[in-house]
Amino acid sequence: MPSDRNPGHALLADAQIRSGKESLPADLCLRIHRLMVRSRAMEERMIKMSKSGEGYFWIGGPGEEAFNTCLGLQVKKGEGPAYDYLHFHYRNSAAMIAMGMPMIEGIRQMAMTVTDTHSLGRNFAGHYAKKEWNVVPVTSVIEVQYVMAPGTAHVQKRYGGDGITIVCGGDAGTAEGDFASCLIWSSRPGHELPVLIVIENNRWGISTPAESVHAEKHIIDRGKAFGIEGEVVDGNDPIASWHAIRRAMEYCRTKRRPFMLEAMVSRLYGHSSSSGALRVKDEPCCIELFEKKLLGEGVIDQETIDQIHEQARAEADEALEQAMNEPRPTAADVYRYTYAPSRVDAVYPDDYTGLPEA
Amino acid sequence: MATLVQAVRMALHYGEEHLGVTDIFGEDVGPPLGGVFTATQGLRTAWNTPLDERGIVGMAMGIAYAGGKPVAEIQFCDYGFNTIDLLKVAGNQRWAGAGNFAMPIVLMTPSGSGIRGSLYHSHSFESWAARLAGWKIVMPSTPLDAYGLMLSAIEDPNPVMVLLPKALLRVRGDKLIPGEPEDEQTLKEMIDAPVGDRTHWKPRWPKLEPYFIPLGVASLVREGQNATVVSYGRTLPLCVQAADQLTEEFGYTFDVLDLRSIFPYDWKAISRSILKTGRILIINEDTEVTNFGEHLLRRVIDHHFYDLLVRPRALMGKHNPGIGLNQEYERNTVPQLPHIKQAMREIAEEEA
Ligand SMILES: Cc1ncc(C[n+]2csc(CCOP(=O)(O)OP(=O)(O)O)c2C)c(N)n1
Fold this sequence. Notes:
The complex is a heterodimer. In chain A, 36% of the residues lie in helices and 10% in strands.
């Protein structure tokens, strides 16, 4: 499997890539770039699967790789309240890839194999669940993750340490009451919670433009009423995103209070396969922008970029080939994992087995 | 003898001290009130939440993800309807996430009529709840059962909803809770918060013992020959009363099953009793269209059609937009003793 490290540029270890007043070391930029490309390759592979019949519905995060890669790389990854909890929505694949998820895990879910450790072939693509990384199950139900996030943060605050809760969703969904609930529950006086409230703002619902239904300038402005600080960042710029996420995490980790981060991102394949999953041309692509910058700084050449894309596509193809050869769920899997084993249940001591029988 | 609500409070205390309960919360659940029905007075981990039922359910789920053991209260089940989709998600988390996360939450809420609650404090919830796959639903009708079912709800590592019959919260049982002092007044002085200033009040808890009622096990409250009556919650003691009166007046005897667990339900007990009596009447007060009792009827027909001597039936609440405040409305909307007695007499007397 190709590594995240770019082998040919050892000399660049000290170089800094700038964006406005901020910068990142060149080797980190190259690492971010490769992760972004790998995430995109996985998503594009899945889009093809949705068209070829190897999978059904596709939804995902092309256009959000810059922000999500920087998020995933800075997560305090692990299990339990000492580590970060992640309440993702369906466009966070790049964060998972950045955290080290092999592509095959995403592809298996799309291919609905029984080897899919996130949902046993039950859920849509991008609907992850991974206990070892505190990634709680992603649902398709818009905004419900925002009412659960204060719960994990509540345990973390009591536990101590610097683990935080990170909750992500789109802009349109913030009209749901659950978003307001998140603001209220994470800012209760004397019980403020370490929740990093992320909004990935692509300015779209499915087809409804944000400006046609929202009067507020920034979504984070709503935090002001609760004393919740926030920042808007260009989510297409990995350098800006990296630092905004770093600051936001630092704030939540040390102050044990909520923070809002609104990332302005693109939506490069429309809403989902339902809207055709066609490549749009009128929104900026974070990978193209970043490559232009890296080329301009002379830290990478076009040939290497092409190679990285080629390798990423090959990795996705291999993952697909492997997944297609793996077992599918059978009728015997229908009830699996409904109930956890219970010593006080006379009917279902182990798992659900259908309606109660005589 | 403890009231049902005192029994719940003692169970929660036992849960805090011995079963790992980390948080008991809801609207007005913490001090000074300790719950609008006093179920959570004096509990160490009880706290007040914002007035936000969805927030309450979400908080419970989050606490459970992070390894805590929450008991959340929805003040009245009437205000749980806006959480239905979250409850659905809570029920599917283990299944949807391939077993990655269990969802060990307890949600307790007063359910049903009988407190002159009019339109918005008289709802039943069990038929809605029973459709939430992945959940377990219990509804005690006595203080001892409330104690034993609450302990099991806490112990079970899955989402369990404890429906507390509003009408029975202040009713006393005829069996002591293990560890409960014999004298009612003593118990009251120990665990009921005083009226007025409670700033310095602290409960003195009796030395309670564990008592787990397994989920999915009904209780045969009366044993008889003429028909099987299946009920739970507010209508259960009315069924018992009706059975006793019909025995005295006409010599009819009934198997009266207190289901206690609505899901999983004790199909074994229902089935066994039908094979004995050949007659079954299901009684509850939820509204009659897609009522949980109708599901039981379907199973009765599927499994016991040829064992039945007369048509199986259910007595339920009326399909009505609400329960009106004037008691004439309530009496004619949800089953009362005379309706229950009448239905029981009819099924016992009908010619096979
Ligand atoms: C509660 C709920 N309502 C409606 C939908 C259908 N739906 C799916 S995605 C979507 C738009 C979401 O927009 P936004 O929150 O901005 O997120 P984005 O998809 O743009 O990232 C809608 C309406 C849903 N899944 N859940």
